[in-house]
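Quick one, tokens below:
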């Protein structure tokens, strides 16, 4: 007899379809939005006049979803990024509001272009980083939209990781990593003038993040942990190097800084605690934040404002409701709902994400989230430890399609921000250095043991699942502790850190020293941290998925572990998606993988499942 308290199974098509609308951007004059939405099954660029139902597609690619779009400052064109088959060699395209043939502003082969500065005050030009001169180095190129061309603006001397332009669209700040591993901030006073050292930051303090220049271009805003444990927002006086702390938190890093588009002043700063918490640093943002709290109980993010700064778009996120976008009038302090990203999910019951803490075996406090299936007694549940990628990233509260899918199928979902995760200060981050298969792995195991000890998890029905570093963590967990998990799912996870480090993308070369400090710098050590060399110890069944064109974790990483597992007789199912890179962007591939994974988990954990779809062409 079915349990009436358990909500209906949510179709995978509802959970994993592209959002109906997403990534809204407000036009420079505030009269239109550009957004991403499906067209012919692929995310495409649409525009709409606010208050009207005149939605239309202006750019689409039948071969692959478009991941990013932004207005040109003239309000008559939209810019977007696209790569080829997941290779992450992005080109920047431009299209007018009537659609038509898009213009490739960064033509060439084997190039990677990323936007650096697109400022509404400069409607006919912009800045991108581009590795056209040297595949290893990201120079800055200046775009001339009218001429549909780009020219070299600022050359990378060989060690620059990040660039920043001032409010006059001049490249005047850079972060580089020098030979001893430390980071330096360099500045210059004008185009063509000499670069000079503004500050030097030890490796242990972490890479600084350049935020913006002050309205008068005399000061530089930076997020850094120098002279503090957590990353704080500071202001450097460019002429003297004098530093002033603008905002800090004793436990958590500064996560975001909102720069008011009209004034170029700092409006608000966000700390990601258990949830995202904003603090206003301007009068206008103080009033706006009060209004936001009355508007919706979820988290807010500032998305995009007009060139005048009189209106902006807000993204609201919650754990049991998909994201929403609002248009906010800063003068009237009023908001109107633009759209729900996934309105079909509003008809279903989602599972709440609960913040949790546990203690690692060496006493380090770990934070994370536990999502329990609705309508089921929270005791002795089949459980999935879902490990985030990066690994220099962190799990956060809010709607996650994978988490909701797993919980709806009857599984408890455990997420833990193991040491090496970001957001908790530099000591917590550095505790993960060269510990990929060490204490980072045992933190996950300690969270596993916590869930069992608290009574939530059934120790005989406990799976581990992750993507990228999370895929690697799946392999290491099964190789080092063969009896801890009954099965695992690895998506684009490296299996041998020697081959992984030897094949990083060329444009990662300037950050090789950072990778060596955090992962390891010699083959013997890297092999000691690699599950490939312990593959014979793996006994739990595995599902492995890989994109054939992945530039970060090459297909070889999955091929070699699958070969080793099959040779030792371990059950392994291997999915290769020929038109994917580092992850699954195509809907048909995501639906196929989710269907296979759902059946795999049902066999080993006993949860609910829909039949998997056939993959087109098979």
């Amino acid at each position: 007899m079915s349990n009436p308290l358990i909500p209906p199974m949510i179709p995978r098509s509802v959970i994993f379809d592209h959002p109906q609308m997403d990534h809204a951007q407000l036009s420079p004059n505030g009269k239109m939005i550009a957004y991403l939405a499906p067209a012919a099954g692929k995310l495409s660029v649409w525009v709409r006049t606010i208050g009207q139902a005149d939605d239309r597609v202006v750019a689409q690619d039948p071969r692959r979803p478009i991941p990013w779009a932004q207005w040109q400052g003239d309000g008559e064109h939209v810019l977007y990024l696209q790569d080829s088959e997941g290779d992450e060699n992005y080109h920047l395209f431009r299209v007018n509001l009537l659609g038509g043939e898009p213009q490739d502003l960064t033509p060439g082969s084997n190039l990677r272009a990323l936007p650096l500065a697109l400022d509404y005050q400069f409607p006919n030009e912009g800045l991108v980083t581009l590795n056209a001169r040297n595949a290893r180095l990201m120079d800055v190129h200046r775009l001339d939209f009218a001429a549909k061309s780009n020219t070299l603006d600022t050359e990378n001397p060989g060690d620059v990781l990040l660039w920043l332009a001032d409010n006059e669209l001049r490249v005047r700040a850079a972060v580089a990593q020098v030979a001893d591993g430390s980071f330096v901030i360099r500045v210059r006073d004008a185009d063509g003038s000499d670069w000079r050292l503004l500050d030097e930051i030890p490796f242990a303090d972490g890479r600084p993040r350049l935020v913006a220049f002050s309205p008068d271009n005399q000061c530089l805003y930076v997020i850094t942990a120098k002279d503090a444990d957590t990353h704080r927002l500071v202001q450097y006086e460019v002429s003297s190097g004098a530093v002033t702390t603008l905002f800090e938190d004793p436990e958590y890093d500064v996560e975001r800084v909102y720069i008011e588009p009209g004034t170029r002043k700092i409006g608000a700063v966000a700390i990601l605690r258990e949830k995202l918490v904003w603090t206003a640093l301007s009068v206008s943002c103080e009033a706006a934040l009060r209004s936001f709290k009355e508007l919706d109980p979820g988290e807010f993010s500032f998305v995009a404002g007009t060139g005048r700064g009189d209106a902006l778009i807000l993204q609201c996120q919650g754990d049991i409701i998909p994201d929403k976008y609002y248009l906010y009038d800063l003068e009237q302090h009023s908001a109107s709902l633009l759209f729900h990203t996934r309105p079909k999910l509003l008809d279903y019951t989602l599972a709440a994400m609960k913040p949790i803490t546990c203690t690692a075996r060496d006493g380090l406090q770990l934070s994370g989230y536990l999502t329990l299936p609705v309508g089921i007694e929270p005791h002795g549940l089949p459980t999935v430890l879902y490990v985030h990628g990066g690994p220099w990233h962190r799990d956060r509260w809010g709607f996650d399609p994978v988490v909701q899918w797993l919980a709806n199928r009857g599984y408890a979902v455990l997420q833990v921000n193991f040491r090496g995760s970001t957001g908790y200060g530099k000591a917590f981050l550095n505790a993960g250095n060269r510990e990929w298969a060490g204490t980072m792995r045992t933190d996950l195991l300690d969270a596993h043991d916590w869930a069992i000890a608290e009574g939530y998890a059934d120790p005989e029905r406990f799976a581990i699942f992750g993507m990228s570093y999370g895929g690697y963590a799946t392999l290491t967990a099964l190789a080092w502790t063969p009896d801890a998990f009954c099965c695992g799912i690895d998506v684009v996870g490296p299996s041998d850190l020697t081959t992984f480090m030897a094949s990083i993308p060329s444009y990662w070369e300037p950050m090789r020293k950072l990778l060596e400090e955090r992962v390891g710098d010699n083959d013997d050590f890297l092999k000691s941290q690699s599950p490939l060399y312990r593959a014979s110890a793996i006994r739990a069944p595995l599902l492995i998925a890989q994109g054939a064109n992945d530039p970060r974790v090459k297909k070889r990483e999955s091929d070699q572990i699958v070969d080793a597992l099959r040779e030792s007789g371990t059950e392994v199912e291997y999915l290769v998606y020929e038109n994917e890179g580092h992850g699954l962007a195509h809907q048909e591939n995501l639906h196929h993988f989710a269907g296979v994974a759902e059946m795999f988990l049902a066999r080993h954990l006993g949860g609910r499942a829909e039949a998997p779809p056939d993959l087109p062409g098979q």
